[in-house]
Amino acid sequence: MQTDKVIxxxxxxxxxxxxxxxxxxxxxxxxxxxxxxxxxxxxxKTTAMRMLCGLSxxxxxxxxxxxxxxxxxxxLIKKKIGYMSQKFSLYEDLTVWENIRFYAGIxxxxxxxxxxxxxxxxxxxxxxxxxxxxxxxxPLGWKQKLAFSVAIVHNPAIVFLDEPTGGVDxxxxxxxxxxxxxxxxxxxxxxxxxxxxxxxxxxxxVSIMVDGKIEALDTPANLKQHYNADSMDEVFLHxxxxxxxxxx
Length: 248
Prior knowledge:
It is built from eight helices and ten strands. By secondary structure, the chain is of the alpha/beta class. It has a single domain (5-247), classed as 3-Layer(aba) Sandwich (Rossmann fold), CATH 3.40.50. The strands form two sheets. The chain has a six-stranded mixed beta sheet with strand order 6-7-8-3-9-10, sandwiched between helices. A four-stranded antiparallel beta sheet has the order 2-1-4-5, with helices on one face. The longest helix is centred in the last third of the chain and has 16 residues, at 170-185. The model has no long low-confidence stretch (mean pLDDT 90).
């Protein structure tokens, strides 16, 4: 793994009226890192990711993504990142080929690059002969792999994955993480939110959010050692209980 910072966050905060969704978080991510952004539903993970993707302005704090400021250069950030949501971000009523061409065009690839990338992806995903199939007809695992491949078709500096394995079976989840490792090996930083604590084991480092705050940040091994835990589930439960007691 490289040591070049591609995400830098300092005291980032997002408020909606009197409600603080993201509360003064700070962290860095480096090139090629698989960074797990963990927490229960409603912990503030998606809100934080939207700020880093240039989709929502912070209330306060500082952050840069791929060298660009989230306040002033959000459009430049969008050109340097990929994004995949839990719903896979694909158009169900378009064919496999049409989805690849559409997203490659959105990300600014030339016509010749789009043709080359389309053939490459169809081969890598074993979808030859399925290019004219509607995406809605594909098995869930294929949709997931296609959505991820489309999200990095332009070889971005960072890919943001928002609950990418929600609703899929354990075997498909493991296969999907194989794609993540391949992207990391190409020096793409993978920023992944999940509420599956076992997936933390696949990350280089993880942060754990509870009620908008980062309560822990380290490697999975170090966190388990620090909290004398056998699994990341135990680490999370410990942090959640501690946060609850502090509010009482």
